[in-house]
Amino acid sequence: MKTIAIIPARAGSKGIPNKNIRLVNEKPLIYYAINNALCCEMIDEVIVSTNSKEVQIIAEQMGAKVHWRNEQLCGDEITLDGVIYDATTSSSAVDTDIVITMQPTSPTLRKATLESALTYFKESTFDTLISCVNKPHLAWRQDDLGNKYPDYQKRLNRQYLPPYYLETGAFLITRKECVTPESRLGQNIEVFEISDDESIDIDTYSDLKTAEHVLSNQRVAFYVNGNTKRGLGHIYRCLELADEFYVSPDIYYDINQTTREIFGESTHNFIGVNGIGELFQTLSNKKYDVFINDVLNTTIDYMIALKACNPAKKIINFEDDGEGVLKADLVINALYQNPTVPQMKAGEDFYICGKTFLFYDPIEIKNDVKNVFISFGGADPQNYTDRVLEIIKSPEYQGYNFIVVIGRAKENVEALLKYTDIDNIEVLYDVRNMPQLMSKCDIAITSRGRTGYELALLGIPTLAMAQNTREEKHGFVSQENGFNYLGLNPNNSVIKANLDLYLSLEQSERQRIHKKLLEHDLRNGRKRVLGLINSL
């Protein structure tokens, strides 16, 4: 059965001038329909019907035939039926069995979808098969008198509405005998459902932008781990960054180091692997444009193996102080102050704050300290929470209110929650309203990771301690930037003495610290990081 594809592409589009030859993702719009048709082995001939010299050049250079359209068939009021019929009268199309109309305004159709539709049509007795997208919505109609009435029987959430198929311009497959100057439809008609992404039909400039996005769509993957020893900063950053891509990223994690529960209630696509061997095996069957590591230090061997099994166009490492940075395209180390390789960006300018913090202003410095915020991250391997709770349960602190937040990787949670029985202590687990809780407080105690940046963003005078030798390298949470840094694992007497000091600080001194903390722009790191990733 001889099958031809006819692509109608006249000049003179008024809504979008030169629409068919506009560059979309660096190629003319009409390129995509021609390329799909030429690459489909089930199509014997590709004909472009046009009155445009530019379209003619593009079509012939790509290997398609051109049928020069009569000017009488180029008006705005002319339907496609007559145009397609006219093209079938050319000498090469006379003995055709199947005619496919493919509009250049549907650039996102995939070749595999076109082939599936053709196979379905050839194995059926249908006269006509039309590409459609299922778009169930609560819709309304209007009668001849202008009265509006609902086009549904029952108001339901969209996913429960019956199918509602809208035609797209991707393809209309029909038998040759059904093609006339007035119609291309036979008696026996079926629809072929295609995806939302493939259903784009270019009518507006917004459609052009959407098509550009779909055609340049990046495949993104993360490899991230977090636990009681490593902390959860990597997990939190991964989830924040994953939301910034206009695609659904794959998020890999090692089941020997990280549990699915660590990611909380997020609905991203999480994929557990049994060690890096299984990770590499899985990646060898997938191709990503962007691959992001957030696993602390990487090695040269890991990075070489990663590139060998999945040569992503961009490999970005976060918080990496290992030799693997030499093989990364970009390294973001917000917790360190000095870059060690040219492709590394270091310092607080590249800190990604939680989205909800952007809706909170810095705190107001009050006359006296009344409320104290305490949190040592998601894991707290030094058990600072336990030690501080033992200090503040003393009656001498009854005049102050303490809000203590523990993360979902913390051990002995149940024992710590019992401190809530003390009137002036509130212990909270795995909260979602961190900036709200912080904003209620006058001073804070934390470790030297992500939480320190959050407190600085709100201008809260803070005592800080390092959880491990790695955190000792985190330069932002320091005296120089307005923190009272106590070092790694200070004894309880040092913690208590500094807590007492901060509880008694004069308003003017806290105001000075507040001003110092706010000297840093911690709200725009997200924009800077994404700009770097997109510029690679």
Automatic annotation (TrEMBL):
What are the recorded GO MF terms, alphabetically?
N-acylneuraminate cytidylyltransferase activity
Quick check: keyword Transferase in the entry? yes
Per the record's keyword annotation, is Transferase included, yes or no? yes
SUPFAM superfamilies tied to this protein: Nucleotide-diphospho-sugar transferases (SSF53448), UDP-Glycosyltransferase/glycogen phosphorylase (SSF53756)
Protein keywords: Transferase
Record CDD domains: CMP-NeuAc_Synthase
Instruction: Determine the domain of life of the protein's source.
Output: Bacteria
Which PANTHER family does the entry mention? HAD SUPERFAMILY MEMBERS CMAS AND KDSC, N-ACYLNEURAMINATE CYTIDYLYLTRANSFERASE
Q: From the Swiss-Prot or TrEMBL record, give the protein name.
A: Cytidyltransferase
Q: Which source organism?
A: Aliivibrio sifiae
